[in-house]
Input
Amino acid sequence: MIKMKKFLILFPLLVLFSCKTSQPTAADDISAIRNILSEQQKAWTDNDLEGFMNGYWQSEELTYFSRGKITKGWQTTLANYKRNYPSKNETGVLNFEIANITQINQDAYWVMGSYFLTREAGDANGTFMIIFKRINGEWKIIGDSSC
Output
């Protein structure tokens, strides 16, 4: 009888805890975003522009803004990177300095920071603001403004 009472008390609690789905926290989201940025630094430094582009939304709606010009599309953005950074001499070593990651809503963040390229073709640096959106459970950059 005592075992049955324990079962009747514990069973609903087990069901409740096993059915509960956990939502990612803001800290989880920020960690995932930082991980993507870290992967991008490595891919760029390895002269792997396709790998660098894995962090971007593979869509014609991807928007990139630089030097006063808007570019649309993942493939166009990749082609521009390949044209402007044709070899390891131009890609060099990429480092990001993240100034701020701010939540816009449950499925979007903006990231502000600086980039630093150390390379044979001459060092370069600048600033960026990128928009990350959760798409089909994955964080992707949907907008990038760099100068």
The chain is about 40% helix and 35% strand. Residues 26-45 form the longest helix (20 residues). The CA atoms of residues 28 and 34 lie 10 Å apart.
